Each structure stands twice: as structure tokens, then as C-alpha cells.
Amino acid sequence: MIELGKIQMLEVIRETPIGVYLNEKNEKIGEDILLPKSQVPPELQIGDDIEVFVYKDSEDRIIATVRKPKLTLGGLAVLRVVEVTGIGAFMDWGLEKDLLLPFKEQEREVKKNEEWLVGLYVDKSSRLCATMKLYNLLGSASPFKSNDRVHGTVYSYNPQFGYFVAVDNKYHGLILNKEIYGGLAVGDSVEARVKKVRADGKLELGMREAAYEEIEGDAQKITDLMKLHEGKLRLNDNSPPETIRTELNMSKKAFKRAVGRLIKEGAVKITDEGMETLWK
Fold this sequence. Notes:
Blueprint: E1 7-16, E2 19-23, E3 33-36, E4 49-56, E5 62-65, E6 76-85, E7 88-92, E8 99-102, E9 115-122, E10 128-131, E11 149-158, E12 162-167, E13 171-176, E14 189-197, E15 203-206, H1 211-228, E16 232-233, H2 241-248, H3 252-264, E17 268-270, E18 275-277
Parallel strand pairs: 13-15
Antiparallel strand pairs: 1-2, 1-4, 2-3, 4-5, 6-7, 6-9, 7-8, 9-10, 11-12, 11-14, 12-13, 14-15, 16-18, 17-18
């Protein structure tokens, strides 16, 4: 079966002044598909096979091309917005006809020349369109395990859960709200740590290092801030979590763990007003 939106091998059925017509080799189904003359290789003959991509042209006709698009059905790719119109945004995907990203398929407003991670789908009118709603296009059979470092793209946000991430632009990932210390937005690229591989294969991600690795970094952040304030810091165990997050961009739990490390090393002492260094 000839599939819209996919690269496939088809047979040359007949030749005309405007190009050659193609169909499946072993089972001819439906109408033959035109490969325009400008794209026909000189040596191509009737009965030969040729690899083409099948899509619809500007007049909504099914057509073949030997050009390789940047995105095919079932895949994801980062595409550039070339125009925003009243029906949505058009994106450059390497073919003569730009790809429509309808407004209803946008996770946030997009602008000309921006680049976004999108997938490809066939709409109700049998036209190929782009979508930023990627959940159903991602897989769960990733090669990653706990504590692996991964790269991904934030593609959606749910206030109840957190930020959904396309890991390697292929696999399901989620950064829970409690893991966020600072701003994230749809479209951001992130480096994260795999905190957990769920039973269904989906990845729970953390923006911070594992506890045994992050203590040193958090402790350094605290001492660096104290140096800027003459060895004193108006933070201690009684400080509200929001204040700690604002001052140091870390959770209260991480703060207490790092302070405990500094106290154990004899670097700081706790006072009624906060902390003081014990540097000589």
C-alpha cells in the first residue's frame, strides 16, 4: 500500500510528457502517482524501481518526489518557521511546499524564524501537517538506566505533573515540578539525569545531580555567596524554603545537606541570624 508521508520504493508504470507515473511493484492499488519530469533521473525506464517520498502538492494532489524531507511520518525533527498566517505557521521541511503547523497543534505561540521540534501526522482531510503535541509519537524502549545523563527537548507542560521532555527526540521523559529550581519553557533544550526508569519504560528525569554528587556543588555555591557578604549569610535551618530557593536556587533539603557538610568540615557555624564562616 502506498503510504502518504513516507519514503518508499515504487515501480515506474508509464512515461508521459510531464513525468513518470509510479505504483507498487507487486500489487497495483489506486491511481498511479506522478513523479514530475524535472525529478526523473535520465536513466530511469519503465519497470524500474525508484525510492520516493509521497505527499500532496500545492494543489492538493498526491505526488512523488526524489527529494528527502527533513521529517517523515512517525519521526520527529527540528524545523524552522518560515511564515505565520491566519491558519497557522508554515515550516521548512526541505520540499517545495512548506509544511503547515496548525494553531491547534501548537503548544505555544510560534514566530517566524524560530525552530521547533515537531512530528508529522495526517489530518482529517488526508493532508500532512506538523504537530508540537508529541506524546503519542514518542517511544518507551530507551537504552537508558538510572543516573544516565540525557539530552532532550521540552515539548509540553502540565501544571499537575511537570515538564514533558522528548529525550534524544525519541523517548518519553518527564521532569516533575518538584525538580524544577528556575524557569523552563516549551522548546528549551535540557541536560538531565535519569532518576528512574518506570515499569512502562518511561523516564523520570532530574535537573540536579545525584545527592552524593551535588553536595559538593551546593556547598561551593553557599561558600561563594558568603564570600560576597563578608563571610556571613542570613540563611539557616529555620529559613523558609522559598527564601532559600530565591537566594541559592536549591531546595531546603539540598541546602541542609550542604550546610551539614560544611559544618562537619569546620567551615561554617550556625548563628541566630544565619551562618558565619570559620575561615582564619
